[in-house]
């Protein structure tokens, strides 16, 4: 019994050391890339801001203070440190609204990618593994979606169901699934010709086990890279829809909605649209930098 306990302890210590070595390996890889480190820091910082928005924001994002209408940023005349980024046409604090807007923008970007990744990844795995008529059906469906501009699909669906957060999440997921399906299918077509997959098939391993244990883990790197870049695209597309009045609606706050609200005041109160635009730009650049680093690290050809 004592010997079994010692063996279990050794296995536990070895597993813990392996995990620690893997973490340190990724940290070393990240530290060697300036753009990767910048992207990682930006993404983590925005994520933390979104999670802890109620603790960080100085005011409620929808708090209206009539005496503070269109107050400029603190460094300008008539500005103050109470509203460091100024206020909007209803006296609401821009800094607080940007912080809370990160929650909706990040939520929409990440959730829509989860939907697109699950739908497209599943269809790509099935089409690539089984081939034949099933592959033809999935690929023709993918071709049909890719032939239609994604913005047109988005506008049609939103026009039918109306603009709200859930509709935007759903429609962005639907608009992006075809890219996942095509790329994952290509990976599967290559992987299923490998010796370890052929060996599993020859000894009678069931298809769902082969897909789950042998093929899916080998497509994770491609999936991660696509997802990081798709999150950035989803954030920009959400901002575009909200700017057109077809995305997030009040009382919810998103960066795109802030841009839409500030476009009529660009000549007189530039800060209403400028600071949300800067937030979008920095976040998207950070995610793109992180995605480029992940591509370089995970792609065996590089």
Give me the CATH superfamily of the largest domain: MetI-like
What integer value in Å does the Rg equal?
24 Å
Distance between the termini: 49 Å
Give the rounded overall mean pLDDT.
84
Q: Which spans of ≥5 residues are poorly predicted at pLDDT below 50?
A: none
User: What gross morphology would you assign?
Assistant: elongated
Helical fraction:
over 70%
CATH class of the largest domain: Mainly Alpha
For the record, the count of structural domains works out to: 2
| Series of H and E elements | HHHHHHHHHHH
Strand content: under 5%
Which CATH architecture of the largest domain is right? Orthogonal Bundle
* CATH fold group of the largest domain: MetI-like fold
The structural class is mainly alpha
DSSP, total strands: 0
| Number of H/I helices | 11
Biggest sheet, open or closed, and with what strands and sense? none
Write the layout of secondary structure elements.
Elements: H1 2-31, H2 34-51, H3 53-56, H4 94-130, H5 132-147, H6 150-161, H7 165-191, H8 195-202, H9 207-243, H10 255-262, H11 271-298
Question: What this model shows, in words?
Answer:
With 302 residues, the protein is an all-alpha fold. The protein has two domains: 1-32; 103-293, Orthogonal Bundle (MetI-like fold), CATH 1.10.3720.10. It has eleven helices and no strands. The chain has helices spanning 2-31, 34-51, 53-56, 94-130, 132-147, 150-161, 165-191, 195-202, 207-243, 255-262, 271-298. It is elongated and about 75 Å long. The termini are far apart.
Descriptive key words:
302 residues; mainly alpha; MetI-like fold; 2 domains; 11 helices; 75% helix; elongated
């Amino acid at each position: 019994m004592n010997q079994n306990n010692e063996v279990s302890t050794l296995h536990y210590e070895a597993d813990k050391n392996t995990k620690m070595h893997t973490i340190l390996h990724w940290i070393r890889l990240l530290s060697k890339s300036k753009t990767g480190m910048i992207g990682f820091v930006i993404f983590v910082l925005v994520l933390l801001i979104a999670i802890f928005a109620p603790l960080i924001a100085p005011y409620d994002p929808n708090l209206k203070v009539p005496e503070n209408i269109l107050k400029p940023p603190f460094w300008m005349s008539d500005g103050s440190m109470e509203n460091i980024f100024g206020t909007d046409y209803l006296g609401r604090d821009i800094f607080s609204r940007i912080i809370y807007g990160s929650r909706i923008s990040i939520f929409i970007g990440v959730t829509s990618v989860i939907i697109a990744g699950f739908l497209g990844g599943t269809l790509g795995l099935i089409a690539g593994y089984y081939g034949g008529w099933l592959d033809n059906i999935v690929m023709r469906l993918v071709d049909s979606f890719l032939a239609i501009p994604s913005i047109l699909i988005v506008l049609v669906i939103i026009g039918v169901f109306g603009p709200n957060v859930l509709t935007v999440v759903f429609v962005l997921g639907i608009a992006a699934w075809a890219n996942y399906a095509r790329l994952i299918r290509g990976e599967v077509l290559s992987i299923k010709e490998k010796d370890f997959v052929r060996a599993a098939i020859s000894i009678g391993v069931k298809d769902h086990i082969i897909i789950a244990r042998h093929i899916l883990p080998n497509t994770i790197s491609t999936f991660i890279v696509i997802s990081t870049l798709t999150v950035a695209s989803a954030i920009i597309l959400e901002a575009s829809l909200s700017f057109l009045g077809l995305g997030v609606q009040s009382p919810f706050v998103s960066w795109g909605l802030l841009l839409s609200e500030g476009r009529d005041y660009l000549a007189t109160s530039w800060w209403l649209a400028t600071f949300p635009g800067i937030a979008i730009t920095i976040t998207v650049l950070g995610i793109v930098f992180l995605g480029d680093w992940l591509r370089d690290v995970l792609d065996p050809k590089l």
